[in-house]
Amino acid sequence: MIRDRKKKSIDRFFRESPHVRWALLLLILGVFTIGLYPSLMVNKHHYEIGDVVKKDIKATDDFFIEDEVATEALRRQAVDNVVTVYDLNPKILKGTVTRLSDAFTRLRVIYNQEKDKLQSANATAAPVSQAPSYDPADMPDLPRVPLKERMLASKGLFETILGININTDTFSILSDQGFSEEISRLLTTIVTQVLSMGVVANKEVLLKEADKGITLRNLETLSETHILNLKQFYGPDQARTMVRVVADPLVKGMGHDLVNVIVDIAQRLIEPNITLNSLETEARKEAAATQVKPVLYMIKKGEMILREGDRVTPLHLRKLNAMKGQDASHSVPLAGSGAILLVAAIMIIQYHVRLKQRMKLANYANKDLLFLSCIMVASIVLVKIAGTLPDTWFLGLPLSRPESPVGYGTPLAAGVMIVCLFMGRETALIFALALALCAAMLLQGGLETFSYYILSCTMAAWWLRDVRERKVIINAAAKLGCSMPAWPL
Fold first, then answer.
1. Cβ proximity of 63 and 323 under 8 Å
2. For residue 57, which phi and psi values (nearest 5 degrees)?
């Protein structure tokens, strides 16, 4: 007696309890979710370089992987194509010419002043017979001190303005010439001609860029010029030689000592006005390397990543990491979440619109829901199994959606026909909507895939609207089998 009561109580619970209905809904959604995201049920293996692969691993989706060798080659090529930057400083020539003019002008003024003082002192000096007796040390300016020695006091000033050191003999020769404007003009001409051609500190380093040339940047205007003829520039030794070459036709007729003085001062005034800009060159190389986009190649879905028994190489490891990153970035896609919610909504609407009242009238309780759940779960499993079969088994049909042509051969309409036979056409049509949506999502199809499934399931339910003989089922199946292959095309 007690056993019968317990049995009836358990039977009533499964037939009438709303908890069972929610459990069936969760079962369908759970199977559908696992079908969408099989990685949730797959044990992920962690490999290191040199490990032996325990099981074949295929790509779960299309993804890109960087070809590091090709990318690095492109970066090296981009860096090699960067032209070395040299800076042209026009201020060096302008400053040298200005210093030359200032130094000779200043010393020429001093020379004339000292010369005038000396002449004035000699003109006003008394005759020797009438010269008074006094100590020469008390006299502030002695007329008998030569002008050349008077000018030596200004040697330091001349060197400071000019920016170079000269010996006493050179300074004395310039003093003898009175720091003439002609000498200043000659020096300016020589220095200008040499520096205007460009002087580099190390021409050997410069000539290493002969194949690509250099980028010459003017520091004043910031304009850049690509120079290919690098031999036109002078090194320090060449510049000193060119000073004498330029000076020879200009100093004809002058004394040997004066010519040597002019050449010596011009050589001392020459300094490199073209310098290597290493910082700017390196910055441009880094920018060129950064602008190179990675070379990517595609790994197709289903492509073998690792084979059982192989040793893991760095390339294998990069592919695995890229695939894991792809899976992580799509772990909870919005489209999949929306599909799950949509399937749940269709199931709930079907229950309230069609099944709830029917269950009350026929006293079927949860049996109808259990029947529909079994058909739905079986159909989902069948679709998922069909999606894993190779395309070559099915004659390689030229279909774009779903990715495997076997998806179009999945007999989902059979499930709808079973529901139509036992629960009516209206229930089958609502069931067909949920089933078509699940199949299209599981096979990663588009609108055409969903349209194909909903059309085939709807036609199956329509052809079974009045089943009074067995041949009606056979005729409906035959019609469906003949028409379905033509719909995808």
1. yes
2. -125, 125
Least confident of 18-22, 229-233, 463-467: 463-467
Taking the domains of the chain in order of start, what are their residue ranges? 11-37+332-486, 84-124+136-286
- Which phi and psi (to 5°) does residue 458 adopt? -65, -45
Chain-centre distance for alpha carbon 104: 59
For 119-155, how does the pLDDT look when each residue is reduced to its tens digit (9 = 90+)? Answer: 776 666 545 444 444 454 444 544 456 777 778 888 8
Could you give phi then psi for residue 245, rounded to 5 degrees? -65, -45
Phi-psi category of residue 358: left, alpha or beta, with phi > 0 → left and psi -120 to 50 → alpha:
alpha
Q: Tell whether omega for the bond before 38 is within 30 degrees of 0, i.e. cis.
A: no
pLDDT digits (tens, 9 = 90+) for 286-334: 999 999 998 888 888 778 888 888 888 887 888 887 777 655 444 445 5
- Cα–Cα separations (whole angstroms), residue 56 to 49, 304, 306, 402: 16, 7, 6, 24
